C-alpha cells in the first residue's frame, strides 16, 4: 500500500504544480491505483491494450479528480496479464515512453519477477519505497540487486563471455556474491574493452533512490544506513536516500481519495515530505534547500557533526576508524563532510 499511495501522491504533487502527469499501473494482476484515486466505475485499462482493443496506451488514459493528472488503469484482469509475453512487454515499454506528458510515474508490484525488474530498469529514476524494518530493508536490497543484475543481463546477454559471467554471478547467494560495478568494469576492460562505454552508461543511468515509509522527516534509521552501505560494498552502487514519508493515521479515512488527503490539514505534512523528496530526486546533489555545501564550519557545526558521527553505524567508517574521522573534523572539516555525504549521510550542518 505504501508505494502505491506514494505514487499517487507524487503524481498529484507534480500535477498541482502544473505539470502533465500520467500514472501507469503496471502492478499487473494486483493493480490498485484507481481505488486510491476514487475511480470505481469501469474505465479503459491496460487489459484493453493487451487484448488489442486499444491501439496505444494514450488511447486508454483516464482523467482523474486532479487537474493535469491522468491514469492508465490496470483494474481489469485477464488471464496471462500478470506475466505478459516478451513482445508485449517491449510494446508496453515503447508506448509508456511515448506518452505525451511531462512525467510518467509507474507503479510496480513487489518481488523480483523479470517483468517487474525490466519495467523498473526503463525508468529515468527508479524509486524504492521501503520501511525501517529488517525484513523490508532486506527485501529492498534484494530488489535493487535483482534490478542491477537484470540491467546488466539485458545489456550484455548477447556477449558470450561477459553474459556467462553475469549469469553465473546471479546464481550466487549471500557472502559468495560481491560482484560490484567496479569488478564488472575491470572484467570488461580485460575481456572486451570496446564494451566499456556500455558499463559506463549503466553506471550513469542506474541510480535508484530510497524513500522510507512511516518515519519522521529527516530521520535516518540505522537500517537505512546499513542498506546504503550494503549496496555500495556488495554492488558498488551509490544509492541515495531521497527522504521519508510520515506516519499519519488519518490517511486511512482518505484511501479512496488520496488527492483530497494531500490538500487536507492532516495531509499537509505528507505533501510537504513528497515535495521535498521530489526536489531531491530531481536534483541528485540534494534537497534544493541544501544544495550548497559549506566551506567553512563554526565550532557549533563541528560539535554537531562530531555528535552525528558518534551515532552512525560502524559500516559507515569501513576501512577507516571513526576516531580518525572525528579528529580530522577539527582541521579538515570540509573533507570529512564530503566523505560522509559520499557514504549516504546528511545533516543540516553540512549546508549553507
Q: In a nutshell, what does this entry contain?
A:
By secondary structure, the protein is α/β, with parallel strands linked by helices. It is built from 15 helices and 7 strands. The longest helix has 23 residues, at 134-156.
Walk me through what this model shows.
- By secondary structure, this protein is α/β, with parallel strands linked by helices.
- It folds into 2 domains: 2-282, Rossmann fold; 292-350, no CATH class.
- The chain has helices at 2-16, 33-36, 46-50, 86-97, 114-121, 134-156, 160-170, 181-191, 196-205, 222-235, 258-262, 268-282, 299-311, 322-328, 333-342, and strands at 21-26, 62-63, 69-72, 103-108, 127-130, 209-213, 240-245.
- The strands form 2 sheets. The protein has a 4-stranded mixed beta sheet with strand order 2-3-1-4, with helices on both faces. It has a 3-stranded parallel beta sheet with strand order 5-6-7, sandwiched between helices.
- The chain is globular.
- 33% of the residues are buried.
Amino acid at each position: 500500500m505504501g508505494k502505491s499511495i506514494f505514487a499517487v501522491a507524487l503524481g498529484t504533487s507534480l500535477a498541482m504544480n502544473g505539470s502533465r502527469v500520467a500514472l501507469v499501473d503496471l502492478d499487473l494482476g494486483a493493480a490498485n491505483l484507481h481505488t486510491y484515486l476514487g475511480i470505481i466505475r469501469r474505465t479503459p485499462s491496460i487489459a484493453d491494450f493487451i487484448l488489442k482493443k486499444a491501439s496505444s496506451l494514450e488511447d486508454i488514459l483516464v482523467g482523474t479528480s486532479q487537474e493535469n493528472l491522468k491514469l492508465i488503469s490496470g483494474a481489469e484482469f485477464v488471464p496471462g496479464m500478470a506475466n505478459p509475453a516478451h513482445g508485449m512487454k517491449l510494446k508496453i515499454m515503447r508506448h509508456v515512453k511515448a506518452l505525451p506528458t511531462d512525467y510518467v510515474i509507474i507503479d510496480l508490484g513487489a518481488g523480483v519477477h523479470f517483468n517487474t525488474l525490466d519495467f523498473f530498469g526503463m525508468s529515468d529514476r527508479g524509486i524504492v519505497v521501503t520501511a525501517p524494518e529488517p525484513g523490508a530493508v532486506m527485501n529492498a536490497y534484494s530488489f535493487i540487486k535483482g534490478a542491477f543484475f537484470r540491467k546488466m543481463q539485458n545489456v550484455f546477454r548477447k556477449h558470450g563471455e561477459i553474459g556467462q559471467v553475469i549469469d553465473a554471478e546471479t546464481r550466487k547467494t549471500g557472502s559468495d556474491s560481491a560482484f560490484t560495478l567496479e569488478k564488472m568494469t575491470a572484467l570488461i576492460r580485460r575481456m572486451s574493452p570496446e564494451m566499456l562505454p556500455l558499463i559506463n552508461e549503466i553506471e550513469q543511468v542506474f541510480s535508484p533512490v530510497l524513500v522510507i515509509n512511516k518515519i519522521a522527516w529527516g530521520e535516518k534509521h540505522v537500517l537505512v544506513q546499513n542498506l546504503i552501505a550494503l549496496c555500495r560494498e556488495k554492488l558498488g552502487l551509490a544509492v541515495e536516500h531521497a527522504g521519508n514519508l510520515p506516519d499519519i493515521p488519518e490517511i486511512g479515512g482518505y484511501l479512496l481519495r488520496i488527492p483530497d488527503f494531500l490538500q487536507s490539514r492532516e495531509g499537509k505534512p505528507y505533501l510537504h515530505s513528497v515535495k521535498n523528496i521530489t526536489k531531491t530526486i530531481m536534483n541528485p546533489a540534494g534537497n534544493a534547500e541544501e544544495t550548497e555545501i559549506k566551506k567553512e564550519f563554526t565550532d557549533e557545526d563541528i560539535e554537531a557533526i562530531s555528535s552525528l558521527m558518534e551515532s552512525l553505524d560502524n559500516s559507515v567508517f569501513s576501512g577507516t576508524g571513526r576516531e580518525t574521522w572525528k579528529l580530522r573534523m577539527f582541521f579538515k572539516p570540509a573533507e570529512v563532510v564530503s566523505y560522509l555525504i559520499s557514504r549516504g549521510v546528511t545533516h543540516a550542518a553540512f549546508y549553507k
